[in-house]
Design a protein that fits this description.
- The structure is a single chain.
- The strands form two sheets. A seven-stranded mixed sheet has the order 5-4-3-6-7-11-10, with helices on both faces. The chain has a four-stranded antiparallel sheet with strand order 2-1-8-9.
- β1 and β2 form a beta hairpin.
- The protein has a domain of 176 residues: Vaccinia Virus protein VP39 (Rossmann fold, 3-Layer(aba) Sandwich), CATH 3.40.50.150.
- α1 runs parallel beside α5.
- The protein is an alpha/beta fold and 265 residues long.
Length: 265
Amino acid sequence: MKGAARLDPGPATAPHAAPRAWEASDPYAAALRAGRGPLFLRRTDGWLLPLDVERWCARADTADLEVLDRCEGAVLDVGCGPGRLVAELAARGRTVLGIDVSEAAVARTVRTGGQSLRRSVFEALPGEGRWDTVLLMDGNVGIGGDPRALLARVADLLAPGGLLIAETAPGDVDERAQVQVVDVTDGHAPGTTFPWARTGTRALLRHAGAAGWEGAGQWRSGERRFVALRSTRRASSSAEPPNNAAVMSSQRPRNPSDDSAVADR
């Protein structure tokens, strides 16, 4: 995938009844359009996890740049949000694609100069089995509520020996929960409930080890924590079709028309 200037968005996926959790959340879309919060993930027991919308909508910061300096080859940013990392890599002349289930996130990524596609990581994606680096930043290791399933999916996306860089949760945490995106200040209805995970460094390394990944580094930048993992999947001479078996209910598309191929705009 090295050197490609444009990325084919790939085939549209079949419709499903369940909505995309992030896209269905009006508070999330409104916050991205405004570029600010407050915004939270709320568990069913009422506990709130603040979401750093202002940082996501700003330019890549020092911690982000350190991550991007470690990226290899063509980069896929899973859950790219408003696209600060995609835009920075594109400005460096790198081959990069962001994916996100939120239409507002994809639109903002495109406006900042990045290529982005409205799709879930568990749907068919361009370049499956050929990406050199996959990013799971800003807590996106929690997508789908099952870190091992997500690690398996990322392994399918990466080229043999490819690199995963994930941002982990503070502390020794390894939890699964049903959550909603909420804005506690302005009367927005909460978003759809969906499964999420919070995974610290030790827990992620444990899950990765069980799945056969190799550790490639871990570091901190301020209060943020990161892990790099190396895929041990071997090259196959056979074609590798998209892996749709692991599609999770919180990540399914509503309609093939939602598969916005904005990467070619």
